[in-house]
Amino acid sequence: MSEQYHNVNDLRFLNQMGKLTPDEFSAWLGPDEVVSCEEAPSPRKYRELSTLGAAVSTQCPCCIEAQVENANGAGVSREKDQ
Fold this sequence. Notes:
- The structure is a single chain.
- By secondary structure, this protein is mainly alpha-helical.
- The chain has helices at residues 14-20, 22-35, 44-58, 61-73.
- It has one domain (10-73).
- Helices cover 60% and strands 0% of the residues.
- The longest helix has 15 residues, at 44-58.
């Protein structure tokens, strides 16, 4: 049995979390807002990799899954950049 709790069905509660604890929810979403800033000096894929590193460090399966998807969408791959 896994030592981590992970139920993707819990994502349906995100809207409710935002309503019940708006300040905390906004802070939780903060890194995504930074990453999506188009005026940032670093390439988006590097910003996505940074948030992926944070997700891995917290070992949150939902966060890791979401950040991997975002990173892939920004052009991150397993291939080494040339």
